[in-house]
Amino acid sequence: MKKLTLTFCALFALVVVAPALYADGPEPSSKEKEVMQPAPPVCDFYRAHEWDLSIWGAYAFAADTGQFNVPNDDPFFNPNNGTNGFMETDVTNTTQLALLGIPIGPPTVTEPANFNPNEHVNIGRVSNNQLFARDDTWGGGVDVKYFWSRYFGAGLEGVGLAAKTNFAGGGLVTLTGRYPFGRFAPYVTGGIGFIDGGATLYKFFNEKHNPPNPTGTVTNEREFWTVDPVANNHLRALGQIGAGLEFRVTCHIGLMADFTWNFVFGQDDNHTNKFHLLTEQGTSTVTTIDNLGILPTTVTNTVVINQAFELRPGHSSDNQDFGMARFGVTFSY
Question: Against a cut of 0.85, is the pTM above it?
Answer without folding.
Answer: no
